[in-house]
Amino acid sequence: MALPIMAKATAVWLVDNTTLTFMQIADFCGLHELEVQGIADGDVAQGVKGFDPIANNQLTQDEIDAAEADKKYRLKLKYNAAAEGEEVRRGPRYTPLSKRQDRPASILWLVKFHPELSDGQVSKLVGTTKPTINAIRERTHWNISNIQPIDPVALGLCKQSELDAAVQKANAKRLKEGTALTDEERRKLVSTEQSLGLAPEPELPTAISGLETFTLSGNDEADEEEDDNLLVDADTLFNLPDAPSADDDDD
Q1: Pseudo-torsion of CA 15, 20, 25, 26, nearest 10°?
Q2: Under a CB-based contact definition with an 8 Å cutoff, are residues 147 and 137 in contact?
Q3: In this predicted model, which residue has the larger pLDDT, 52 or 247?
Q4: Which parts of this chain are annotated as the region Disordered (predicted)?
Q5: I need a labelling partner for 99 at 20 to 30 A (CA). Which of 106, 115, 208, 240 fits?
Q6: pLDDT tier, 128 (very low <50, low <70, confident <90, very high otherwise)
């Protein structure tokens, strides 16, 4: 059943301006009967200004009159042609402010463990934009050195069923195109528990990045000769001079 906008404020207005029962108001606004009773007692929705459903094209006065005359009558939300189809969500997923800082970590996890997902699928799963995805994929994001991959399901940014459906759709598309996952990519697919238990990847300081495989070459023979010179034979080391004899003392 469709509910009115600003349901609690609408309930406040109906409590203050009509003689409808708590059950009728609760049924229309999608609230519990005790919650409506709390509004009437002043314990709930304190400071909430009533929202007139008649002035805002949600109810008619005739509908309210019919409900007041018959306590078993159920209020019906006024049909609004302009609101037709509004229940279908469009555009990117809305992400609460408290979780928006977790989106880069989720994007990095999806890019790393599910490379088959397109930018559009990642965008729909975590509610982000394609430029942000590209920046993390190409490691040009301003905070990339501090981002650790975290499963978006564990962060509450999407449901496991939604992630599974996106992965299956991406795999079906790649199979159709003949670009299915390689064995190496399949080994990267781990469960949520495993990914959360993985040790963080070691990071190299920016100053020495790219020098981890640096070695000196061209002086191997000189180094070997120097090592040979430093080696001391055991007989030479312990070959001490003989003790002076008695004849030597007389001389």
Answers
A1: 110
A2: no
A3: 52
A4: 216-251
A5: 115
A6: confident
Q: How confident is the model at residue 69 (pLDDT cuts 50, 70, 90)?
A: very high
Indicate the SS3 state at residue 116. Answer: coil
Compute the distance between CA of residue 15 and CA of residue 57 in angstroms, rounded to an integer: 18
Residue 195 φ/ψ, nearest 5 degrees: -65, -35
Distance CA 104, CA 143 (A): 9
Alpha carbons 69 and 52: distance in angstroms, whole number: 20
CB 149 within 8 A of CB 105: yes
**CB 158, CB 147: distance < 8 Å:** no
Q: How high does pLDDT run on average in the chain?
A: 77
Domain ranges of the chain: 7-83, 97-197
Rounded Cα gap, residues 11 and 6, in angstroms: 9
- Other CB atoms within 10 A of residue 68 CB: 14
Six token digits for residue 108: 């990095």
Which two three-digit tokens encode residue 111?
């890019």
Distance set, CA 220 to CA 6, 216, 217, 231 (Å): 79, 9, 7, 17
- Dihedral angle sign, alpha carbons of residues 33, 37, 42, 43: negative
> pTM surpassing 0.85?
no
Over pLDDT 70: what percentage of the chain? 64
Which of helix, strand or coil describes residue 109?
Answer: helix
Segment (H or E) for 172: helix 160-177
Is residue 4 a contact partner of residue 78, using CB atoms and an 8 Å limit?
Answer: no
Query: Does residue 34 come out as left (phi exceeding 0), alpha (psi in the -120 to 50 range) or beta?
Result: alpha
Considering only CA atoms, which of 96, 22, 10 is closest in space to residue 53? Answer: 10
